[in-house]
Specification:
two-stranded antiparallel ribbon, three-stranded antiparallel β-sheet, Helicase, Ruva Protein, domain 3, Tetrahydropterin Synthase, Chain A, Transl_elong_EFTs/EF1B, GTP Cyclohydrolase I, Chain A, domain 1, alpha+beta
Length: about 200
């Protein structure tokens, strides 16, 4: 078994944001391999998040972010279970980062279910027309259009988007990491994005 040093634990803690004991346990489990330990913690965080999915979130914060000298503004409501967590820097930073991310990416909704049906219908029709225009056989049109719709959701639904500060993870991954660290269910409830000159 590899010797787990305090420096290794500190490095993993800085990279993962997980607690000291969780980091040590992950390094022991993964034989001192830092990358494997990060994956181990991420999987554990997702499992923790799944366990907490049924809990009520009645506390939280509203954060705002103003960009480009007042040209773009975002307000986001992020909820958690207790006032204690709502007042932590970790939770506040998460809400601020989500507001900044929304300013940068302009998502259509939080999840796929939030995308209005008329937007889905319009996008699907455009993709079908593009595929037909490419001369693809009829039996392939729906399949290719569906693939393009999945890409649309990935790019336009907040939870599926790549986090602008750390593109190797999605917003859902980032949320699950914060859930694992705080030990509470956290949810992004709603947001509003304003842009000067946009409808």
């Amino acid at each position: 078994m590899a010797d787990i040093t305090a420096a290794m634990v500190k490095e993993l803690r800085e990279k993962s944001g997980a607690g000291m004991m969780d980091c040590k346990a992950a390094l022991v489990e993964c034989g001192g391999d830092l990358e494997k330990a990060i994956d181990f913690l991420r999987k554990k965080g997702i499992a923790t998040a799944a366990k907490r999915a049924g809990r009520a979130t009645s506390e939280g914060t509203v954060q705002s972010y103003i960009h480009m000298g007042g040209k773009i503004g975002v307000m986001v409501e992020v909820n958690c279970e207790t006032d204690f967590v709502a007042k932590t820097d970790d939770f506040g930073d998460f809400a601020k980062n989500i507001a900044m991310h929304i300013a940068a990416t302009n998502p259509v909704g939080i999840t796929q279910e939030d995308v209005p049906q008329e937007v889905i219908d319009r996008e699907r029709e455009i993709y079908r027309a593009q595929v037909i225009e490419m001369g693809k056989p009829e039996q392939m049109v729906e399949k290719i259009a569906e693939g393009k719709m999945n890409k649309f959701y990935k790019e336009n639904c907040l939870m599926n988007q790549q986090y602008v500060k750390e593109p190797d993870k999605t917003i859902a991954d980032y949320l699950n990491e914060v859930i694992a660290r705080t030990g509470e269910k956290i949810s992004i409830k709603r947001f509003a994005r304003f842009q000067i000159g946009a409808d």
